[in-house]
């Protein structure tokens, strides 16, 4: 293949363009230069082939693009090279894989004025989530300089995610994710010599700031919406910013070719058999899990040594690597983003990949057994050794309708989009403490009062995490708001119930800087947790940050579907104090339509149901804690595990009682514990009692829905 391709390319390069074509190109170039007010304007010479940018096969980067082309001779040469690129090794291999006839392919060349993005930045944008197919977001990658570094995956770009349905509302700023990329190098115009462009190192100030500001991110998103509507399908676009004028441009648009073609009635899920600690993380490409031995290739000239079924590990891949990419079990790279050409091609080929790990080629060694998982959200993980995993295909196209609202429990913002196709009624439990521990990582009080953190290592960690933010408080508010908003976006406009933080003191102490603020308790499960913290001077400032983050997600970003929920509220007086504290931060009940729910998980919540119902808009039964406190059984005790049963009569009578009394007070009652997922008879009991909603772990949603449908059917027959 290499010999044949090289021979064909040489025929193109040695030939002259037909004179009438060459004359037309020269004339058009002179006219364009004159119109631009320059003697010889700089051009981008871009190819587009008939086997490229199809609705079912984009093969990004199949043909060549030439940048900063100046002068008639250089322009004609670039055109010949564009035509020759029809027969690169990667193009031949791709057509073979797709079953295209090599001689049925034609190529056109688009010649554009260069956007001076070498003085600013450029990147790629999708009008759909590239990993899950969630249709309501735009995903944007950005790096300094010309956009080829992002496209080729040779740089770790900034990543922005925007919720499209709110982007057209000028009152909302629905940027639900901003991830700062390293952007260690950039492609710029070359000066002197025959090269038209050159790669240079970026300066520290460029690496530490975002390429685009929020208004530019929103402007690109609005354009993505227009382009998607025009073509009537999800799109893959390239954009550039002119450093001379500050103007933004869309320079290319083509169909998205993976998620938009998937069967929306089936959902394939993957999960590891047991948990492990990853040795590397990066951007996940795909949603699958794969295992195999590492085949480490540092130089493209060594591609021929790749072993079928191995895990390809490289600094980066580009379309030239396609012949081996399709033979790999998985791919791991040092550099690149989720919108690079290599990532796009990996998705098309169905090969899971983790890109932008930073150190894969240094940490992993030839022949090492590894498992890579793209099934845990938008951040992929690499594990040492072979970890068994399960794969299951769920058919969601013909599920029965149920009267009971079935919702999902969500912990991780990164995994929020995975389950958008489930016919859920929203989120019954979004755990704020998971976002704090996994994204923020720092104790809220350590961010509010950094002067009280004495540990030098903790202070260094805090400085590193908060870099680029005005202070630690801004870091907490913005990071938490975006994490919550990402979950809210996946289910908008359906309700998303966000539980305020419910760490125990021992869990808070393990956060960075936490040791300085947490007491030591003999029994943290029954100690300083939940509502009791929010108005206490030892955590009051930290709770204020939580309120400000939720307020930002609802009012600044626009996610009015967020409902706040107070956990472990022991008395009505404590409820009053918490609600007053929320109001102090401009986040009071019914402010801007805010609803506030309460976890019903303490016996006092059941006994005093009417008193609590007068203060809250809804209850969510926490069956785990309620069972623990009613039966006096430590839910974490292996010794007492046989006694811990949510179906015990004491528990079921309490639940039936609180549902009836709450309904009499005119408020809704749901449940967000594990029991309905584990026990079909318990789900049937809840339906019989008239519960308004059941919130489930996503992987048990379909099976529980079928149990609920059976229970509702049996109940209607009984009547």
Automatic annotation (TrEMBL):
<keyword id="KW-0670">Pyruvate</keyword>
<dbReference type="InterPro" id="IPR040442">
    <property type="entry name" value="Pyrv_kinase-like_dom_sf"/>
</dbReference>
<keyword id="KW-0460">Magnesium</keyword>
<dbReference type="InterPro" id="IPR023151">
    <property type="entry name" value="PEP_util_CS"/>
</dbReference>
<dbReference type="GO" id="GO:0005524">
    <property type="term" value="F:ATP binding"/>
</dbReference>
<dbReference type="InterPro" id="IPR013815">
    <property type="entry name" value="ATP_grasp_subdomain_1"/>
</dbReference>
<protein>
    <recommendedName>
        <fullName>Phosphoenolpyruvate synthase</fullName>
        <ecNumber>2.7.9.2</ecNumber>
    </recommendedName>
</protein>
<dbReference type="Pfam" id="PF02896">
    <property type="entry name" value="PEP-utilizers_C"/>
</dbReference>
<dbReference type="InterPro" id="IPR015813">
    <property type="entry name" value="Pyrv/PenolPyrv_kinase-like_dom"/>
</dbReference>
<dbReference type="InterPro" id="IPR000121">
    <property type="entry name" value="PEP_util_C"/>
</dbReference>
<feature type="domain" description="Pyruvate phosphate dikinase AMP/ATP-binding">
    <location>
        <begin position="2"/>
        <end position="261"/>
    </location>
</feature>
<dbReference type="InterPro" id="IPR008279">
    <property type="entry name" value="PEP-util_enz_mobile_dom"/>
</dbReference>
<dbReference type="GO" id="GO:0006094">
    <property type="term" value="P:gluconeogenesis"/>
</dbReference>
<keyword id="KW-0547">Nucleotide-binding</keyword>
<keyword id="KW-0479">Metal-binding</keyword>
<comment type="function">
    <text>Catalyzes the phosphorylation of pyruvate to phosphoenolpyruvate.</text>
</comment>
<keyword id="KW-0808">Transferase</keyword>
<dbReference type="InterPro" id="IPR018274">
    <property type="entry name" value="PEP_util_AS"/>
</dbReference>
<dbReference type="InterPro" id="IPR002192">
    <property type="entry name" value="PPDK_AMP/ATP-bd"/>
</dbReference>
<dbReference type="InterPro" id="IPR006319">
    <property type="entry name" value="PEP_synth"/>
</dbReference>
<dbReference type="Pfam" id="PF01326">
    <property type="entry name" value="PPDK_N"/>
</dbReference>
<comment type="pathway">
    <text>Carbohydrate biosynthesis; gluconeogenesis.</text>
</comment>
<dbReference type="InterPro" id="IPR036637">
    <property type="entry name" value="Phosphohistidine_dom_sf"/>
</dbReference>
<keyword id="KW-0067">ATP-binding</keyword>
<comment type="similarity">
    <text>Belongs to the PEP-utilizing enzyme family.</text>
</comment>
<dbReference type="GO" id="GO:0008986">
    <property type="term" value="F:pyruvate, water dikinase activity"/>
</dbReference>
<keyword id="KW-0418">Kinase</keyword>
<dbReference type="GO" id="GO:0046872">
    <property type="term" value="F:metal ion binding"/>
</dbReference>
<feature type="domain" description="PEP-utilising enzyme mobile">
    <location>
        <begin position="307"/>
        <end position="377"/>
    </location>
</feature>
<dbReference type="Pfam" id="PF00391">
    <property type="entry name" value="PEP-utilizers"/>
</dbReference>
<feature type="domain" description="PEP-utilising enzyme C-terminal">
    <location>
        <begin position="402"/>
        <end position="708"/>
    </location>
</feature>
């Amino acid at each position: 293949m290499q010999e044949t391709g090289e021979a064909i390319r040489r025929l193109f390069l040695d030939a002259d363009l037909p004179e009438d074509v060459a004359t037309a190109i020269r004339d058009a170039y002179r006219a364009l230069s004159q119109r631009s007010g320059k003697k010889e304007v700089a051009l981008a010479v871009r190819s587009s082939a008939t086997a490229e940018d199809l609705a079912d096969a984009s093969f990004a980067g199949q043909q060549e693009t030439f940048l900063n082309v100046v002068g008639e001779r250089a322009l004609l040469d670039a055109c010949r090279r564009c035509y020759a690129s029809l027969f690169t090794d990667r193009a031949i291999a791709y057509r073979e894989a797709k079953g295209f006839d090599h001689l049925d392919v034609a190529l056109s060349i688009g010649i554009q004025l260069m956007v001076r993005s070498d003085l600013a930045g450029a990147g790629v944008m999708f009008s759909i989530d590239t990993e899950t197919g969630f249709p309501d977001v735009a995903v944007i990658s950005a790096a300094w300089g010309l956009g080829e570094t992002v496209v080729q995956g040779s740089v770790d770009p900034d990543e922005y995610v925007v919720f499209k349905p709110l982007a057209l509302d000028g009152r909302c700023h629905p940027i639900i994710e901003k991830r700062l990329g390293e952007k260690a190098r950039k492609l710029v115009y070359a000066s002197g010599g025959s090269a038209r462009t050159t790669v240079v190192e970026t300066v520290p100030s460029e690496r530490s700031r975002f390429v685009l500001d929020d208004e530019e991110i929103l402007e690109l998103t609005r354009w993505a919406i227009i382009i998607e509507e025009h073509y009537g399908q999800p799109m893959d676009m390239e954009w550039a910013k002119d450093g001379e004028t500050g103007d933004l441009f869309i320079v290319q648009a083509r169909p998205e070719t993976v998620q938009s073609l998937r069967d929306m009635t089936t959902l394939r899920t993957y999960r590891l058999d047991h948990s492990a600690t990853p040795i590397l993380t990066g951007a996940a490409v795909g949603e699958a899990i794969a295992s195999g031995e590492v085949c480490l290739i540092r130089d493209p000239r060594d591609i021929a040594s790749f072993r079928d079924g191995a895990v390809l590990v490289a600094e980066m891949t580009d379309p030239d690597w396609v012949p081996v990419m399709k033979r790999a079990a998985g791919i791991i790279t040092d550099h690149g983003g989720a919108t690079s050409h290599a990532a796009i091609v990996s998705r098309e080929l169905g090969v899971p990949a983790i890109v932008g790990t930073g150190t894969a080629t240094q940490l992993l060694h030839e022949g090492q057994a590894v498992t890579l998982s793209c099934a845990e959200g938008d951040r992929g993980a690499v594990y040492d050794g072979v970890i068994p995993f399960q794969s299951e295909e769920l058919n969601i196209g013909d599920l029965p309708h149920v009267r009971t609202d079935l919702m999902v429990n969500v912990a991780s913002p990164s995994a929020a989009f995975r389950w958008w196709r489930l016919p859920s009624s929203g989120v019954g439990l979004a755990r704020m403490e998971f976002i704090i521990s996994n994204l923020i990582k720092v104790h809220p009080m350590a961010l509010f009062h950094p002067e009280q953190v004495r540990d030098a290592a903790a202070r260094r960690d805090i400085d590193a995490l908060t870099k680029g933010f005005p202070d630690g408080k801004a870091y907490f508010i913005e990071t938490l708001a975006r994490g919550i908003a990402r979950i809210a976006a996946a289910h908008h406009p359906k309700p998303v119930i966000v539980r305020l933080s419910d760490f125990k003191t021992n869990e808070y102490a393990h956060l960075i800087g936490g040791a300085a603020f947490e007491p030591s308790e003999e029994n943290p499960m029954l100690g300083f947790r939940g509502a009791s913290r929010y108005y206490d001077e030892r955590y009051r400032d930290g709770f204020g940050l939580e309120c400000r983050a939720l307020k930002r997600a609802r009012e600044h970003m626009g996610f009015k579907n967020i409902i706040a929920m107070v956990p472990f509220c022991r008395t009505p007086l404590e409820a009053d104090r918490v609600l007053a504290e929320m109001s102090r931060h401009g986040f009071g009940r019914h402010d801007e339509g805010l609803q506030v729910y309460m976890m019903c998980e303490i016996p006092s919540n059941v006994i005093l149901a009417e008193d609590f119902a007068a203060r809250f808009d809804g209850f969510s039964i926490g069956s785990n804690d309620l069972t623990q406190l009613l039966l006096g059984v430590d839910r974490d005790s292996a010794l007492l595990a046989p006694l811990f049963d949510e179906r015990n009569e004491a528990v079921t009578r309490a639940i039936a009682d609180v549902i009836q009394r709450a309904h009499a007070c005119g408020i809704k009652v749901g449940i967000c514990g594990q029991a309905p997922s584990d026990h079909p008879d318990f789900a049937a009991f809840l339906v019989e009692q008239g519960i308004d909603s059941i919130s489930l772990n996503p992987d048990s949603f379909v099976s529980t829905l079928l149990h609920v449908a059976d229970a509702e059917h049996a109940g209607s027959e009984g009547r």
